[in-house]
């Protein structure tokens, strides 16, 4: 599964709140979808990387949970 926990760590390290992201043009609805673990597009990932000046690995990570999903 994809985890967005790196995004929240990156935001904390860079002292950027969800409010600041919104001020920079990032939709609040998309932020809340990420908080709920919903799927996002590569365009959204690209936008976050641009706004936060970071890499994809600073936004999301893959966690192997095949033992739960593919049984």
Description:
- This protein has a two-stranded antiparallel sheet with strand order 1-2.
- The protein has one domain: 434 Repressor (Amino-terminal Domain).
- The protein has helices spanning 5-13, 18-23, 28-35, 42-52, 66-69, and strands at residues 2-3, 61-62.
- The longest helix is centred in the middle third of the chain and has 11 residues, at 42-52.
- By secondary structure, the protein is mostly helical.
Please describe the topology of this protein.
Layout: E1 2-3, H1 5-13, H2 18-23, H3 28-35, H4 42-52, E2 61-62, H5 66-69
Antiparallel strand pairs: 1-2
The total domain count is 1
Give the end-to-end Cα distance, rounded to a whole number of Å.
15 Å
The dominant shape is globular
**Strand-residue proportion:** 5-15%
Quaternary state of the chains: single chain
| Elements, N to C (H/E) | EHHHHEH
pLDDT average, as an integer? 93
Strand order of the largest sheet: 1-2
Largest sheet: 2 strands, antiparallel
């Amino acid at each position: 599964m994809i985890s967005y926990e790196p995004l929240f760590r990156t935001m904390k390290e860079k002292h950027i709140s969800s409010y600041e992201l919104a001020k920079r043009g990032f939709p609040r609805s998309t932020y809340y979808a990420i908080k709920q673990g919903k799927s996002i597009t590569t365009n959204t990932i690209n936008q976050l990387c641009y706004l936060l000046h970071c890499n994809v690995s600073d936004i999301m990570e893959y966690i192997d949970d095949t033992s739960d999903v593919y049984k």
